[in-house]
Amino acid sequence: MSGLLILIPVALGLGLLGLITFFWAMQQGQFEDLDGAAQRVLIDDEEPEE
Amino acid sequence: MTVAARLDPASSEALVDTRFTVPGIRCAGCIAKIERELPKLKGIANARVNFSAKRVAIRHAENMPHDALTHALQELGFEAQEFDDNPLGSEDAEAKRLQRALAVAGFGMMNVMLLSVSVWSGAGGVTRDLFHWLSGVIALPVIAYAGQPFFRSAWMALKYRRTNMDVPISIGVLLATALSIYETMAGGGHAYFESAVMLLFFLLAGRALDAAMRTRTRAGIGALLSRMGRSAMVIADDGSFRSVPSQDLQPGMTMAVAAGESLAADGVVAQGESAIDNAMLTGESMPEQVSVDSIVYAGAVNLSAPLRVRVTAAASNTLLAEIAQLMDEAGQSRSRYVRIADRASRLYAPVVHSLALLAFLGWMTAGAGWHQSLVIAIAVLIITCPCAMGLAVPAAQIVTSGALLKRGLLVKDGSALERLAEVDIALFDKTGTLTLGTPRADITALDAEARSVALALAQASNHPLSKALASSLRDADVEAANVISISERGGDGVFGTWRAIEVALERPDCMQAGLSSQLRIGVDTSVIGFHDPLRSDAEEAITALSDMGIESRILSGDRSASVSTIARELGLHARAGASPQDKLAMLDHLRRQGRLPLMVGDGINDGPALAAAHASIAPGSASDVSQQAADAVFTGRALMPVAAAIRASRACMRVVRQNFGFAFIYNVFAVPLALFGMVTPLIAAIAMSGSSIVVVANSLRLARLAR
User: Fold this and answer.
1) B9-23, B144-158, B443-457, range with greatest mean pLDDT
2) How many CB atoms lie within 10 A of CB B444?
3) Among B125, B128, B429, B472, who pairs with B601 as Cys (CB 3.0-4.6 Å)?
4) Are residues B74 and B95 in the same domain?
5) Domain for residue B643, yes or no?
6) At the top level of its lineage, which domain of life is listed (chain A) (predicted)?
């Protein structure tokens, strides 16, 4: 019984953590432009020398 | 990304965001160009491209006029239009709500299951009560949040005295929750929290899949009007020029249209001679020669020389705006189509409701007491509204559209697949659909020297025929000759000097049938003909369609001579010279005969027909508007994806029907158990996940279509 007192809050906490992370990612717009993310890999970070 | 704020410290005023639709964003280079170059301008803090939605959000100083931003994008080579929040935006929000609800339901399901499995495996006494309480504490907020899409839709249906799939779901979930709360408080043996949450999770998964399919690129009808010139130079009586926005143009005004500009209104040429590109309107890729008194339409691009055009119709009276209007209306007839899942639930919901009610009344009269009777009635409701039903359609459709995507065909949504499976006659536009839409030059008559001179001249010009000639020559591995002092004279051709001989690529002296241009080297002239070839597999695709029992016809806006040549070649019935209205009338006529037509076309003149047909497909080279109106878009040079789409959608519907079959068989076994009160929460949970897995597994077979 004492094990449950620790394990249940841990299980709930981990689940909540995942849920919050997902909401955070949505809030940040990480799912807004999925095709764009694939294209952006190809952009050079530095501007080419003229 | 390297966008730094480049604002003057002096102008540290409020920044605002403005969003623009930029259909021309096609690659990483475009993203980089916009995001790097725009912030270099004074007043713009940063720019952020959304590639999927073809949108640019610009953060700029408040006092900066929006025209300046559009102009800045134009300088970079992108046509842009300010983006107003349109009703299509709400679809995005809906998809997000579903995703969030799905995440919450998933969280709830995992934790409640954890507790329920312990109860099923024998936890008793205080532990069981504790677990029931905990389940309740987790499940209640989860149900309140994740159930909203169903509750709202069920409420709307009930308000209008109708019923849909969401009514039994909502009643089942709410009753199960209420009863579970009662059981928990009374310290009873069974709580149904996990059934309620699991039901929501599986159904939300189906809905979210469906929404994910739908949100794929729809930029709204605005793209059509953005092609029209937004302003025009109007010549006043005193000869002065002023810029007038297109919506303020009046019939009778005279516009000056420079080469390269697009027309802002319909009109008649008053002065000048030029070639105009009507591809926007007719899908006809070849330029049209215009001179005084020729009629020209808004959206056409003036190619070679300046023109003066007397406006005859402006703003919402132009042909282009009329087509947009026509499309809007035509699309409404299709919205009357009822999705297969809704058709199933119309039969299903009354049966389920009466069964549950019968079970309740039956057990009451048998003297089981209201508590027991209610438990059984709820078990019937939950078990007869299996997740398999919610997953049967979306699972099959998302797998099919994924498979088709690999073959170069993008299907807009699930209802499109359902309608594609039903079509029994196909109507093809000619130019750009059966044919490639880009003219190819016939260079067999030219010798090696002539070819290299022709390439040197052709690649110096932007005229569509020159471009076509250059690409044909490059395909034949021709190297350009060293032609010097090349100049282009609008309407006449390209001229230059090669080995001290005068050479030219010009309009042929005699206008003969078909398109041609003339290559002159010194005094020798040779005429180069152009033709628009059929897609290489057009015949196979049409045969494949007829093997599936689909008759094909040609419905084109082109002149009858060129249409009948192709009709003969393919052995098809053809109708030429059809206006957008004619095409609509033809579709209407077919529909009244009880046929379900598929329209395949690319031009804006096909737009209304694409929107009105039972189902429609457009090639990737089509105008943006046609791509939006169509249910599916295929890329590449082959026509076979059209036949593949029909075959795949039919296979998809076969699987959907099998899935419904599974759901039905499952009910045949489960309902009697539920009616006789033999369904425990454990059995309900196993049956529910079991049937869902069967349905998803069956749907995954469709992935083989890609091979």
Assistant:
1) B144-158
2) 8
3) B429
4) no
5) no
6) Bacteria
Q: What is the pLDDT of residues A1-50, one digit of tens each?
A: 677 788 888 988 999 999 999 999 988 888 777 777 888 888 876 655 54
Is 50 exceeded by the pLDDT of residue B219?
Answer: no
Adjacent-strand bridge partners of B301: B262, B277
CATH of the domain at B44: 3.30.70.100
Same domain, B181 and B276: no
Place of tokens 């402006």: B314
Reference B458, options B493, B432, B407; nearest CA is: B493
* B36: nearest CB among A19, A41, A47: A47
Whether residue B147 is contained in a domain is answered as yes
Q: Tokens 């998302």 label which residue?
A: B398
The token pair that represents B192 in the structure block: 């149904």
Specify whether B524 is located in the same domain as B444: yes
Whether pTM exceeds 0.80: no
B/e letters for B200-230, b = 16+ CB within 10 Å, e = fewer, are bbbbbbbbbbbbbbbbeebbebbbbbbbbbb
Which domain range does residue B419 map to? 409-436+535-635
Residue B646 lies in a domain: no
DSSP state of A49: P
Q: Residue B16's CB: how many other CB atoms inside 10 A?
A: 13
Restricting to A residues 1-30, those with a Cβ less than 8 Å away from any Cβ of B are 1, 4, 8, 11-12, 15-16, 18-19, 22-23, 26
Listed in sequence order, the DSSP H helices in B121-147 are: 125-146
> How many structural domains is chain B composed of?
6
